[in-house]
Specification:
This is DUF7903 domain-containing protein. This protein has one domain: mRNA Triphosphatase Cet1, Chain A (Alpha-Beta Barrel). Helix 3 crosses helix 9 and helix 8 runs antiparallel to helix 9. Strand 9 and strand 10 form a beta hairpin. The N terminus is likely disordered. It is about 25% helix and about 35% strand. The longest helix has 26 residues. The relative contact order is 0.20. The chain is an alpha+beta fold and about 400 residues long. The strands form three sheets. The protein has an eight-stranded antiparallel β-barrel with strand order 5-10-9-8-7-14-15-16, surrounded by four helices. Strands 3-4 form a two-stranded antiparallel sheet. The chain has nine helices and 16 strands.
């Protein structure tokens, strides 16, 4: 029998939710009644800094319990579980906060400042072989509640939902958005936000395991050499470390919101031998639009001796729009994970808050200015980025 590359063997996959941090506490009785399960496939490259801030809260309603319930969300996934999303009850259109973005800004401001102080201290202690780059980004998607049986869902909805109950449930953030939303952002929201087209990029990300860094994933960011039908190495990074994650369910809106401060490390001090091993792996990759992730390796060429091995690939095309303080990115991502033999195709939108980040990096931080900028960015998001335009 002829050799079948790993990409050709896998079964058809689909976007998998991005794990949200574990809840602060879980009452044993509640866990039992809601049928909690711990079988999710947590991506190894998702890491949190020591002492990272992780929180969830609902946004936009003055009378939370009487206006919302949990409803199934139809998404394609491997498990038979039916995830739920927090939504505004049918027929309810009152009880909303007039300025929810101000409440969000106040809720996360202290966490943001403290988390960035930690980022600064880590950057100052970084060795010469690594360059740390922080980013503050808003992601748009849907917060899913897991491990809840239909009977438990009915029981929860028949009683007044409490934030404390929802806080104890297992959650994930599902980043793939509908195509209709992508079109809305591209055709309408960009004009309303008065953003300028910046660039379009096609990139391949090759994920490598490194037996010298067992707790990290090496990511090789690669560009395409069209005339040679090859990819070439552009940058080598370690997987992102999350310093603050604030997830917000937004009942009444099409999408939910994640605000995240994270740091990635760019590898600058690798030896010639290490770089050559990585370049050899990259050079062996074959562009193939018929496989998930868009890359495959000839038999035996997806590892370099005993040091590096390919664990996954991403193929992304992204358009970005921006001004001096924000950058909006619309990305199509085709991913494949060698370890789990699963793939996903996702449409994703995020907004980088570069203006706020610049202020945080000042020697003396003007907290009032940071708060005002955060409120302005969140108002922009609330007005334009959490709906698909169907009611506009």
């Amino acid at each position: 029998m002829s050799y079948i590359p790993p990409h050709k063997r896998h079964t058809k996959g689909s976007p998998s939710p991005e794990p949200t941090p574990a809840p602060e506490s879980v009452l044993p009785a509640l866990r039992k009644s809601l049928n909690f399960k711990r079988k999710e496939n947590i991506r190894l490259e998702i890491r949190y800094a020591h002492g990272a801030v992780r929180k969830w809260f609902p946004v936009g309603l003055t009378h939370f319990s009487s206006l919302v319930n949990l409803q199934p969300l139809s998404i394609h996934q491997k498990s038979n579980e039916n995830p739920l999303r927090l939504v505004l009850m049918q027929g309810c259109n009152g009880g909303t906060n007039d300025e929810p973005w101000r409440l969000v800004a106040k809720n996360v401001m202290e966490d943001l400042l403290l988390s960035f102080q930690h980022v600064k201290s880590v950057m100052e202690e970084s060795n010469m072989e690594e360059e740390s780059k922080p980013s503050l980004v808003a992601r748009f998607g849907r917060i899913l509640f897991h491990g809840i049986s239909a009977k438990s869902q009915e029981s929860l909805n028949s009683n007044l939902l409490k934030e404390t109950t929802l806080r104890q449930m297992r959650k994930s953030f599902y980043t793939s958005v509908p195509l209709s939303y992508m079109e809305y952002i591209r055709n309408l929201a960009v004009e309303k936000l008065d953003l300028q087209y910046v660039e379009e990029k096609e990139l391949y990300y090759v994920k490598l395991s490194d037996n010298m860094r067992a707790d990290s994933t090496v990511t090789c960011k690669c560009t395409v050499v069209k005339d040679q039908e090859k990819i070439q190495l552009h940058k080598i990074e370690l997987n992102q470390v999350r310093n603050m994650v604030a997830d917000m369910s937004c009942p009444g809106k099409s999408l939910d919101l994640r605000l995240m401060l994270n740091t990635k490390k760019i590898m600058t001090g690798l030896s010639d031998e290490e770089i050559n091993e990585i370049k050899s792996l990259i050079g062996s990759a074959v562009l193939d639009s018929e496989v998930k992730g868009g890359l495959r390796w000839p038999f035996g060429e997806d590892s370099s001796g005993s040091r590096y091995a390919v664990t996954g690939v991403w193929h992304t095309t992204a358009k970005s729009y921006g001004n001096s303080s924000i950058r909006l990115k619309l990305r199509h991502a085709d991913r494949y994970d060698f370890r789990s033999s699963t793939g996903e195709v996702a449409q994703e939108v995020n907004l980088k808050m570069s203006g706020i980040l610049s202020q945080l990096q000042e020697e003396t931080i003007d907290e009032n200015l940071v708060l005002k900028m955060l409120e302005d960015n969140l108002k922009l998001i609330w007005d334009h980025c959490l709906d698909d335009g169907s009611s506009s």
